[in-house]
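In the present case, backbone shapes were mapped to integers, as reproduced here:
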Amino acid sequence: MTERVTRRDAEGLCTLMLNRPDKLNALDTPVFEELDAHLAALEGETGQIGCVVLRGAGRGFISSPTEPPASPIPMASGGWSARGACRNVCPAASACPRPSG
């Protein structure tokens, strides 16, 4: 199985790459799960990693979700929310330490 998010570390820089170029890196449940796992691992690596770059493979950075998440976040309209699907990933990314000075 292909990783949907790959990680490469070099000299304090971590590059997370969305790896679905055939789908223009469309978001789906496995992408969110893998991003969440990578960000959780990075929380304990602040001594080794000073910068995280998120990029997309191929010609597109990211496109709209291709499917509802496995555990849909209900909306009043009866649909699902991409914002709800990233409820773990977005706060984790925002909480990453930032350089000061």
